[in-house]
Amino acid sequence: MKNKKALLLVISAPSGAGKSTLCNRLVKHYPHMTYSTSCTTRHPRKGEKNHEHYHFLSKTEFSTRATNGEFIEHAEVHQNLYGTLKQTIEKALSDGRDIIMDIDVQGAKQIREACKKLPPQDPVRVGFVDIFIAPPSMEELRKRLYGRSTDTREVIENRMNNAEDEMKQRNHYQHQIINDNLNEALGELIQVIETEKQSRKKRFF
Ligand code: ADP
Ligand code: 5GP
Description:
The protein is of the alpha/beta class and 205 residues long. It has a domain at 8-36 and 97-204: Rossmann fold. The protein has helices at residues 19-29, 59-67, 86-94, 105-117, 123-127, 138-148, 153-167, 182-201; strands at residues 8-12, 34-35, 38-40, 54-56, 71-77, 80-85, 99-102, 128-134, 175-178. Adenosine-5'-diphosphate (ADP) binds next to helix 1 and helix 6.
């Protein structure tokens, strides 16, 4: 029988906090977990592959999909558009597979609010777990963004400005993890997932 209690893990963090690094490690630890590939109008970074890291869309393609109601959530982040296709989430959950969404604080808020209006047994509501990954300090965040060498100074400073506002949202999340030591943060993330899996096993429906 398919797992009707698959997790929908919504993970947010200021850019550069280490969310992608942690999500990649998580998928290696849980090989059956699906990573939700988002749509974006941002240009691909060096090494990023279409349909793997993102579905890279033009602004027109993105807004057509938004108008057609194809996104479960979408938002403008750092002056680009990002969105998650409903189909990606529905497919994973109906197959009984845990899925990770790496999305910003606005997208997480949209899903959180939508869950409140869903019936208690809806797979999105059953699976929903939100986690905020914080950097140990803002100086370390800036260091990581420059160290990653994927963005211009202008892009990095824009992301640092947005980080202050994103950090203010962290108390809305069920779980918060500080990514100081990578292995320790990964361990905490796995612990959260195991606890959430256990709590669902005890529910009768
Ligand atoms: P995000 O997806 O949140 O934007 P990344 O996963 O790309 O961030 O990480 C940003 C940079 O910080 C990368 O160069 C990554 O290797 C590095 N990094 C991630 N976690 C840590 C950590 N715990 N300690 C030091 N550097 C880290
Ligand atoms: P990046 O451009 O660094 O890949 O991502 C920038 C920000 O966009 C990150 O905070 C990331 O979590 C967020 N993001 C990625 N995909 C989505 C999505 O589908 N929806 C929303 N709302 N944010 C997303």
